[in-house]
Specification:
The chain is about 80% helix and about 0% strand. It has helices spanning about 1-30, 35-40, 55-60, 65-95, 100-110, 115-130, 135-145, 145-160, 165-170, 175-185, 190-205, 210-215, 220-230, 240-260, 265-270.
């Protein structure tokens, strides 16, 4: 009886939590099909007419397909860089077992505590000086900022892999690089999925770094297009009939990626937290 009561309480708590989590998405959805006057008059009610013209107009205002392509390229290349560099680094640090590797791990872990604002201006000045205040520089910056947490996760998982598996591959004649990509990396599937999801969501939705690096250039990410569309639309107040549908269409791709890979998140985080 006590167990059933606990389960009931748990289900109720989880249901309430789920409702609170989905409420902003539902609010965004229902207001994406309303006019400005209807949103202001009754923001919580369902639209009287589900008009898709607002979404089409918003897509045109934010140059959806162009900005989507730019955001996709930046996200994919940045995440690929993070996965490649952090998986190799996590594996090397975990297998080295020297004082130097321990210090490097502590440095990577400590780097997670340093806020971006602390290095923002020196970093931008450095990249501007070498001519990398552009899309390429943005990708490199994302690759650097995403390393710390990713290396921490990969390092924890590699410690759970028996070294004998790699030794067998080396005995069979495989080199270090071939051993990593044919034996070790395939075993990191769940951790890699977690790294991809966490970094993709962060990079896709980030506003500050693209604003500082790209600014008001012709090639803008979705978040920048949302910002400049808001700044140039409407003479009075906030253009809600543009903001809501624009935000809605911009988050659809990353939601799809999350839904496809969500089953790996908990497993990947737990695998990356293994203590050796």
């Amino acid at each position: 009886m006590r167990k059933k009561v606990l389960h009931t309480v748990l289900y109720i708590a989880l249901t309430v939590f789920a409702i609170l989590t989905l409420a902003p998405v539902a609010f965004l959805l229902i207001n994406s099909f309303k006019s400005q006057s209807e949103i202001v008059a009754s923001p919580m009610s369902l639209p009287l007419n589900w008009d898709f013209d607002y979404i089409l107009t918003a897509s045109q205002e934010i140059n959806f397909f162009r900005s989507l392509g730019i955001t996709f390229i930046v996200t994919v290349l940045s995440v690929a860089l993070i996965v490649l560099a952090s998986s190799l680094a996590g594996w090397a640090v975990a297998r080295a077992k020297t004082k130097t590797s321990s210090v490097m791990l502590y440095m990577f872990t400590a780097a997670m505590l340093i806020p971006f604002q602390a290095v923002m201006y020196p970093l931008l000045s450095l990249f501007e000086g070498v001519g990398l205040k552009n899309i390429l520089g943005l990708i490199i910056m994302y690759g650097g900022f995403g390393l710390s947490l990713s290396i921490f996760l990969y390092h924890g998982f590699v410690k759970s892999i028996p070294p004998s598996i790699e030794e067998a591959a080396l005995i069979d004649g495989a080199g270090m690089i071939k051993t990593f990509f044919t034996v070790v990396f395939p075993l990191m599937k769940s951790t890699t999925a977690t790294v991809i999801i966490l970094n993709s969501m962060w990079i896709w939705n980030d506003y500050l770094l693209p604003f500082l690096v790209i600014g008001n250039a012709s090639s803008r990410t979705l978040t920048l297009e949302l910002y400049f569309a808001k700044m140039t639309s409407g003479q009075f107040g906030n253009p809600w009939e543009l903001i809501f549908p624009a935000v809605f269409v911009s988050i659809i791709p990353i939601i799809i990626v999350f839904l496809l890979l969500q089953k790996h998140i908990v497993r990947g985080v737990s695998d990356g937290a293994v203590k050796g």
